Amino acid sequence: MKDRTRNQPSFSEPLIFERSAAGKRGYSLRPLDVPRRPLDELLPPELRREQIEHFPEVSEVDVIRHFTRLSTWNYSIDLGMYPLGSCTMKYNPKINEVVARMEGFARSHPYQPPELCQGNLQLLQQLEEILAEITGMDAVTLEPAAGAHGELTGLMMIRACLSERGNPRKKVLIPDSAHGTNPASAALCGYQVQTIRSNDRGQMSVRELESLMTEDVACLMLTNPNTLGIFEEQITRIAGIVHEKGGFIYMDGANLNALLGITRPGDSGVDVIHLNLHKTFTTPHGGGGPGAGPVAVKKALEPFLPGPRIVEKDGTLRWDDGRPRSIGRVRAFYGNFLILVRALSYILTCGPQGLKQVAETAVLNANYIRHQLNGLYDLPYPQPTLHEVIFSDKIQSKLNVHTLDIAKRLMDYGFHPPTIYFPLIVSGALMIEPTETESKSELDQFIEALKSIAEEARQNADLLHKAPHRVRHRRFDEVTAARNPVLRWTPGSEKEKV
Ligand SMILES: *Cc1c(COP(=O)(O)O)cnc(C)c1O
Q: Could you give the count of Cα atoms lying within 13 Å of 336 in the half-sphere of its Cβ?
């Protein structure tokens, strides 16, 4: 196995506080050429920030080098494959960045009068229409700022609609393979969560749904493909069962990558769906950066969409606030505008055929990995999957090597580890989502790395227990880090660091 990580420059870098030297500045000003006035006259003390204790005093060069050096410690999608399952870490084409930085987009004010930003409103309207077309739904809001925010928005609409019909109902049904945000959103919206088990084929048990679906249930929250990467084949039947009792189907469409251009959730009975633009429609994500979780709905829920909505009046686009049944605003302005610009740029550069190819290649790549590693790693659900593949550490754990060891060792081979220990229904899960942007040669290197690690588990388990070896930091003591986090720097505290 070739060492991909050799010869990477790697600089030592102290904390910015430790770089501080009294009196250093990042700027210099010309001598004052107007009369000097006391600061209190210009800005009352109560409006001024107090001195920040130990605020670093550094030059411009110090700042730039500090953050540039830190950036070289980071693994990113621009450096290599990032197979984090359920996160869709695809490469983000730079053209989207160029478009998002165009002056008319980047520098327009969120509350600019509509007549001065008709182009931007048109862009939002176009994106709503395209997302409705992709999902097979009737209307879309772009307001929610992330997937979980979209879930809450969708559930609030369901609650509003059911309340109007006389009873908001009490429960939300969620399969045991769901993302943790689903039960959290349901609870936040005031619903009790009831879990539905998956069957041995990795799909939600329809029999269990039939027994749990009552007129107390507001909706079923279903992820499709689910977090095992498996398509819920019974979706139409499932929708029938839920609708018959007056409930809604909420689809978690965070991972739409496998469905693009192939099937539309709206055509199989879904009533509400959120999408994660930062996953499927390329925004650099991770690290808590901005995202977008648009929600698409069927006609029955349209009146409840958050406001304001864009409407056309006398040939001009404007914001309509007068929608009495709306759940109201869920975010300032109209969502994370520049993320929406990136998504539209991505969709238009791919085109319909390109989007379909995205889905086909994402599925092909995941199944190529599944096929190549089958036998070396346990496959709890051996059938072909969609955009991701889930292995477990069942074979390696007999050698006392576990998922965490495998994930840490992958870093030595120059890869970001996959998602681990999720979904919870697979013990010791390794959840791998390569996405469509990886070439065969990159996939082959990743497969080779995992093959080497399977061999190392047989030959030298200790090597894996201590991994990673070649990256900047060795294995962290996660228990101490969680129990005694060091969150604030004070002079001398660097000496106490573990
Ligand atoms: C990522 C993800 C979410 C949550 O999305 P955020 O943007 O992180 O809030 C929800 N459901 C599924 C299936 C996901 O993969």
A: 20
Backbone angles phi, psi at 274, to 5 degrees: -110, 150
Of 318, 368, 407, 388, the C-alpha closest to 114 is 318
Q: What span, in angstroms and rounded, lies between the C-alpha atoms of 342 and 123? A: 11
Q: Positive or negative, the Cα torsion across 340, 432, 286, 152?
A: positive
Q: Is there an atom of ligand 1 within 6 Å of 419 CB?
A: no
- What is the structure's pLDDT at 498? 42
Please name every residue paired with 389 in a beta bridge, in sequence order, or none if there are none. 432
- Residue 9: band (very low, low, confident or very high) from pLDDT cuts 50, 70, 90: low
* Alpha-carbon distances, residue 207 vs 184, 197, 230 (angstroms): 25, 10, 18
> pLDDT-derived band of residue 486, with 50, 70 and 90 as boundaries?
confident
Residue 276 near ligand 1, beta carbon < 6 Å:
yes
Number of neighbouring beta carbons within 10 Å of residue 15: 14
Contact 86, 430 (CB under 8 A): no
Rounded to 5 degrees, what are φ and ψ at 57?
Answer: -110, 110
Nearest to 138 by CA among 310, 319, 271, 7: 271
451-480 confidence digits (pLDDT tens): 999 999 999 999 999 999 998 888 988 899
- Token pair listed for 320: 């309509």
- CA distances in angstroms from 206 to 58, 81, 202, 209, listed in the order given: 63, 37, 12, 5
| Ligand 1 nearest-atom number relative to CA 276 | 7
Question: DSSP assignment, residue 198?
Answer: B
Structural domains for the chain: 94-348 (3.40.640.10), 357-482 (3.90.1150.10)
Quickly tell me which residue has 């030297």 as its tokens. Answer: 21
Of ligand 1's listed atoms, the one at least distance from the Cα of 151 is 10
SS3 category, 335: strand
- Helices (DSSP H) in 251-331: which residue ranges? 277-280
Tell me: pLDDT of 494 over 70: no
* Cα first-last separation, the chain: 33
Q: Tell me if 224 CB under 6 Å of ligand 1.
A: no
DSSP category for residue 52? P
Q: Is the CB of 179 under 6 A from ligand 1?
A: yes
| 91-108: pLDDT as tens digits | 999 999 999 999 999 999
CA of residue 428 to ligand 1 center, whole Å: 21
Residues 99, 102: Cα–Cα separation, whole Å: 5
> What's the rounded Cα separation, in Å, for the pair 411 and 109?
42
Q: Probe ligand 1: pick from 90, 252, 256, 275, max atoms within 8 Å of CB?
A: 252
Ligand 1 neighbour 393 (Cβ under 6 A): no
